[in-house]
Specification:
Elements (H helix, E strand, L loop, with lengths): L3 E5 L4 H14 L4 E5 L5 H5 L3 E3 L5 H11 L1 E6 L5 H6 L1 H20 L5 E7 L23 H20 L2 E7 L1 E3 L12 H12 L1 E4 L7 E5 H13 L11 E2 L3 E3 L1 H9 L6 E4 L4 H6 L8 H7 L7 H12 L6
Parallel strand pairs: 1-2, 1-4, 2-3, 4-5, 5-6, 6-10, 7-9, 8-12
Antiparallel strand pairs: 9-11
Helix pairs in contact: 1-8, 5-6, 7-9
The structure holds 2-amino-3-ketobutyric acid (AKB).
């Protein structure tokens, strides 16, 4: 029985911490990290690493055969803000990489897939508060359109070919280890860096822009939990709503000020405001809670405490 895991996009924001968590859980040599570029020292030292372009079917297939992979986590993607600048490149990366892993599973070369979706699948016509699992979805961003199409394909491959694909609609993810790239929710990470470095932050979203967010530790736990759940518990094969907390820039500022009273925020909204305005403010994730036991742990103040504790040494002079 094959039992090795391949992570595509292992050097990104989620991929980096997912690689560490999976290596801790299953053993370093069982988890093959890959990306289009090399990772940091820790990534390269802690287990096998391969350079793979996730849009190249043969490159993935070769590694799957070489290492006897049975599970693939596809974390390579272009996020919302960058995708608006490069629509066709975003579509090509986000969709071709998904088809590659779905087709590998259809051909029985791998057994299980994790593929991340996003709150970006929702759009301006979606109910914004406590957004239900099943509701109007008319995404207005390139990224959201690719994620919604991806969800439809995941469900199709499950129903038509029995592909065991599992997915979560991640909210904005807050983390200190790796910087995100090109997302709309990224302000909620940048703000901690700037709070420690300059004691002030210019926000690209306006006050009152409430978005659903989650701490990385919770997001990783959700990912491992959905992949460990027995198949009959995964009743939704498109993607699960996943909620944790919701806040706006003023609320995160208030949380930071409890520890850094001199911190202040000002606002210069840019094109990302329209993206944020099209997304939910909060998420109804009852199905994830009922089906496979999802429960978040971090509230905003706990996130702030952990972020400032871990980033603090980096900005000490
Ligand atoms: C983004 O802002 O693009 C991502 C997401 C919500 O999927 N963080």
């Amino acid at each position: 029985m094959k039992s090795r895991i391949l992570i595509l996009g292992a050097c990104g924001q989620i991929g980096t911490e997912l690689t560490t968590a999976l290596r801790q859980k299953y053993g370093n040599h069982k988890v093959i990290a890959s990306d289009i570029r090399e990772g940091d020292e820790e990534m390269m030292k802690s287990g096998p690493f391969e350079i793979i372009d996730a849009t190249n079917y043969e490159a993935i297939e070769n590694i799957v055969i070489q290492y006897e992979i049975n599970e693939v986590y596809l974390m390579a993607a272009m996020l919302s803000a960058t995708a608006e600048k490069f629509p066709s490149k975003a579509w090509q990366l986000n969709m071709n990489s998904l088809f590659n892993v779905l087709n590998l599973a259809k051909e029985k070369k791998i057994e299980k897939i994790f593929w991340p979706s996003s709150i970006a699948v929702f759009g301006p016509t979606t109910p914004r508060v406590n957004t239900p699992q099943h509701t109007i979805m008319e995404p207005s961003t390139v990224y959201g359109i690719s994620k919604q199409a991806g969800e439809r394909w995941c469900e199709y491959y499950f129903k038509k070919y029995g592909v065991d694909v599992r997915s979560i609609r991640y909210p904005g993810i807050i983390s200190w280890q790796t910087l995100p790239g090109g997302g709309t929710t990224d302000y909620a990470i940048d703000i901690y860096h700037k709070a420690l470095k300059h004691h002030k932050y210019i926000c690209f979203l306006k006050a009152g822009t409430t978005l659903p967010m989650i701490y990385m530790d919770d997001a990783i736990r959700a990912t491992l939990d959905i992949m460990e759940a027995s198949p009959e518990k995964i009743e939704i094969r498109s993607s699960y709503n996943l909620g944790a907390i919701s806040f706006d820039p003023e609320e995160i500022t208030a949380s930071i000020k409890k520890q850094l009273p001199e911190f202040s925020i000002s606002y210069e909204p840019d094109f990302r405001q329209a993206i944020a305005d099209s997304w939910p403010q909060s998420i109804d994730d009852q199905d994830a809670r009922d089906h496979w036991g999802w429960l978040h742990q971090y509230d905003l103040d706990a996130i702030t405490e952990d972020m400032l504790k871990n980033l603090g040494p980096k900005y000490k002079n």
